[in-house]
Amino acid sequence: MPGFFCEQKEGEKRGKLAKKMTAEDKNGMIAANVNSFTKKKPAEECEKSGDNCSTKSRREKAHQAGMEKGGRTMTREEAHTILMKYMEGENYILHSYAVEAIMRGLAKRLDPDSVEKWGIAGLLHDLDEEQCDWRNDMKVHGPTSVEILKKEGVEDQELFDAICAHNPKCGVKAKTPIQYALLAADPMSGFVKAVAQIYPDKKIASVKPKSVLKRFNEMRFAAGANRDYMEAIEFTGLRLEDLVDVALEEMGAISDTLGL
Questions:
Q1: For 205, which DSSP code?
Q2: Which residues contact 227 (CB under 8 A, 6 or more apart)?
Q3: What are the CA-CA distances from residue 201 to residues 130, 196, 198, 205 (Å)?
Q4: Residue 101 and residue 120: Cα distance in Å, rounded?
Q5: What is the pLDDT of residue 6?
Q6: What is the dihedral sign for C-alpha 240, 244, 247, 249?
Q7: How distant is the alpha carbon of residue 68 from its chain centre?
Q8: Which of 28, 167, 206, 229 lies most in the core, judged by the most C-beta atoms within 10 Å?
Q9: Residue 234 near residue 174 (C-beta atoms within 8 A)
Q10: Nearest Cα to 232, choosing from 156, 168, 170?
């Protein structure tokens, strides 16, 4: 949903941003654990143990599951290509990168085998930002993104549900860890940026967790940031303090890209 990254005039172009954040971005937004999936056992060993060695890794299993649903799984590179096809506002894109980073950090703690999936959910959560009239009808924000992804050949119900659940006003309520995480990460990205903006250097590196928590309790500060959504992280078993730590660490890792 719209955040503090999105307070710019419509029509602002992505320009140099696309060059700064490619699929192989130097700041490491591609999953760091790509090579950590389980290796296939030798055929003879599989026969002796009775294990199912028909796939080489969890990644291949996920891909096969996606194919069985009539669709396909998506790489981060493909997701980024789709994002840049449908989104032009620079602040919208920066917001997407920030939420992606937080989601990846949360996945490392909550679902280490799905870091890329969670990151993609964050990257594409506002895909329809410039494609629907959400300002007049919030119910269309989320479902329109799903329609776009289906048009692009994506069929991933977990991803669709997470994107929709980040906007409860569309009628989908968060129920799973990835859904609660995205619901919380979205406003937290903008809140952290707002806190950074009050520092003289406006750098996220200057922001301390206690400063974010202090401002969180000041209801007049960044009043538009939904605190209930941020606190929803507790439904995953993490605390608000954990969300703040992850946001500062992961957004800090791509601070050059975010301009923070």
A1: G
A2: 187, 216, 219
A3: 31, 8, 8, 9
A4: 10
A5: 46
A6: negative
A7: 25
A8: 167
A9: no
A10: 168
- For 73, list phi and psi in degrees, rounded to 5: -80, 165
**190-216 per-residue burial string, b: 16 or more CB within 10 A, e: under 16:** bbbbbbbeeeeeeebeebeeebbeebb
How much is the pLDDT for 137? Answer: 86
Averaged pLDDT, 129-145: 92
Cα–Cα distance measured from residue 15 to residue 17, given in angstroms and rounded to the nearest whole number: 5
Domain edges within the chain: 76-258
Domain over 76-258 is classified CATH 3.40.50: no
- Cα separation, 208 vs 189, in Å, equals 15
**Alpha helix stretches (DSSP H) within the chain:** 17-20, 43-49, 58-68, 76-86, 90-110, 115-124, 143-151, 157-165, 177-197, 209-216, 227-231, 240-253, 255-258
H or E element in which residue 211 lies? helix 209-216
The string of DSSP letters for 87-127 reads: ---HHHHHHHHHHHHHHHHHHHHH-GGGHHHHHHHHHHTTT
pTM: 0.76
Comparing 41-45, 189-193, 210-214, 254-258, the range with the smallest average pLDDT is 41-45
The pLDDT confidence band at residue 2, using thresholds 50, 70 and 90, is low
Distance between CA 202 and CA 207 in Å, rounded?
A: 9
| Per-residue pLDDT tens over the stretch 149-167 | 999 999 999 999 999 999 9
- Relative orientation angle of helices 240-253 and 177-197, to the nearest 10 degrees: 70
Q: Are 195 and 230 in contact (CB under 8 A)?
A: no
Is pLDDT of 59 > 50?
Answer: no
With a cut of 80, say whether residue 42 has pLDDT above it: no
